[in-house]
Design a protein that fits this description.
Keywords: Amino-acid biosynthesis, Arginine biosynthesis, Cytoplasm, Lyase. It contains 19 helices and six strands. With 463 residues, the protein is mainly alpha-helical. It folds into three domains: 88 residues, Orthogonal Bundle (Fumarase C, Chain B, domain 1), CATH 1.10.275; 235 residues, Fumarase/aspartase (Central domain) (Fumarase C, Chain A, domain 2), CATH 1.20.200.10; 96 residues, Ribonucleotide Reductase Protein R1, domain 1 (Orthogonal Bundle). Helix 3 packs antiparallel against helix 4. The structure holds arginine.
Length: 463
């Protein structure tokens, strides 16, 4: 059909076609063609149900099924001609079906509307992204566990305010991210369980008088059950928002880790070496090896969280039920999903390939008075000082070491006794970083024994 006549799907009451600008603002086919496979799956389930309930003849349903499969293969082969005049994926598919199978195509839309159709398609698409995200998170968790296990007892500085705080183990640091991405995984699974209900059959907003079987279509599409309220089914996009929330929080975790990798791979730190496969060079400075993947992961949170804010804003003032505003739900979710999954894959690749520099980690762990707290704790335990006094004495010793340009273990016993007479030779045992980490045996602490117990727990969980 030509673009100047009225729309072949809904044009009955229209004498003229839309203005070019109207078509430009109205058409979503430019992006919702990504829902083609889901749209055709939904239509196939609907067609089979229409036949099973006797709403259409079995021969018509069979024609629909075959026609839909043909449309799908045309789209997959890149042979399908999408038309902006047909607005969106739903009408593009149906129009092509009509060309292929004739009048039977016109019966497909019995007992449904584009409103429940798009809600179904989009749910199926988001569900696929959650499933892909689950796989990616599992791969990342496994890569982190390998790193943690290799360096369960390697010491490194732990930081607060990015200032050396107390020694920790490399394994402990890796396992902190395992906990974070593990919670992302659990959030993702919660979201999936909640969203897995079928809107199909809610029709335009009120349900339908045709004797449809919503259980049947729900089951065919892998949903746990049909949604219980037709107004809700066509109106809400909270499933997409939950997906974006899961992705945003996880992208925030990715971004923090990426930031650490950028710092750690610098010449000043040398904590890790990133592989050539996940680094780039500079076109002018021959010595450079840049952590671009980490930097890009650090930046991706912007668009992912932006999508979350954008969709929340689209939805926040809409009266029930469907409004065309909701067509604006897709592009940003597509973009966020693509970039989140890519970030997860890039992080998994980087973690899998990177090597931690054990010697640099240990050297850094031993500097910056990282065992000052161990010294204060020793004064409490062995010399009976109240913690506040021990803190003060230790501070004086740190100042003394700073003045002498050395670290705490380099002070002589007489230097120490000059600050507090009850200090004995035994103090040197706790000033070493290995003793320090080994002593932090509280549940969840950095002692290698604790870290290994957590690694074992996670390995069992992931199977
Ligand atoms: N392209 C539309 C969307 O994405 C499909 C639903 C249209 N429904 C309607 N009542 N105009 O939201």
């Amino acid at each position: 059909m030509s673009d100047t006549t009225s729309n072949q799907m809904w044009g009955g009451r229209f004498a003229a076609g839309p203005d070019a600008i109207m078509e430009a603002i109205n058409a979503s086919i430019g992006f919702d063609k990504r829902l083609a496979a889901q749209d055709i799956a939904g239509s196939r389930a609907h067609a089979a149900m229409l036949a099973a309930t006797g709403i259409v003849k079995a021969s018509d349903a069979e024609a629909m099924r075959e026609g839909l499969l043909t449309v799908l293969s045309e789209i997959e082969a890149g042979e399908f001609e999408f038309s902006a005049a047909l607005e969106d994926i739903h009408m593009n598919v149906e129009a092509r079906l009509k060309t292929l199978i004739g009048d039977a195509a016109g019966r497909l839309h019995t007992g449904r509307s584009r409103n429940d159709q798009v809600a179904t398609d989009f749910r199926l698409w988001v569900r696929d992204q959650l499933d892909a995200g689950e796989e990616q998170l599992l791969a990342l968790l496994r890569a982190l566990l390998v790193q943690a296990e290799a360096g369960a007892d390697w010491v490194m500085p732990g930081f607060t305010h990015l200032q050396t705080a107390q020694p920790v183990t490399w394994g402990h640091h890796m396992m902190a991210y395992v906990e974070m991405f593990g919670r992302d995984l659990s959030r993702l699974r919660d979201a999936r369980a909640r969203m897995n209900e079928s809107p199909l059959g809610a029709a335009a907003l009120a349900g339908t008088g045709f004797p449809i079987d919503r259980e049947m279509t729900a089951e065919a599409l892998g949903f746990d059950r049909p949604m219980a309220n037709s107004l809700d089914a066509v109106s809400d996009r909270d499933f997409a928002l939950e997906f974006l929330s899961v992705a945003s929080i996880s992208a925030m975790h990715l971004s923090r880790f990426a930031e650490e990798l950028v710092i750690w791979s610098s010449a000043q730190f040398r904590f890790v070496t990133l592989s050539d496969r996940f680094s780039t060079g500079s076109s002018i400075m021959p010595q450079k090896k840049n952590p671009d993947a980490a930097e890009l992961i650090r930046a991706k949170i912007g668009r992912i969280f932006g999508a979350n804010v954008a969709l929340m804003t689209v939805m926040k003032g809409l009266p029930l039920a469907y409004s065309k505003d909701m067509q604006e739900d897709k592009e940003q979710v597509f973009d966020a999903a693509d970039n989140w999954l890519l970030s997860l894959a890039a992080m998994t690749g980087m973690v899998g390939d990177m090597s931690a520099n054990r010697a640099s980690l240990e050297a850094a762990a031993s500097s910056g008075f990282s065992t000052a707290t161990d010294l204060a704790d020793w004064l409490v335990r062995e010399a009976g000082l109240p913690f506040r006094d021990a803190h003060h004495v230790t501070g004086t010793l740190v100042a003394l070491a700073e003045k002498k340009g050395c670290d705490l273990p380099d002070l002589s016993l007489s230097d120490m006794q000059g600050v507090h007479e009850s200090i004995t030779e035994g103090v040197f045992d706790v000033l070493g970083v290995h003793n320090s980490v080994a002593s932090r045996t509280s549940y969840g602490g950095t002692a290698p024994a604790q870290v290994r117990a957590q690694i074992a727990r996670w390995k069992e969980r992931l199977g």
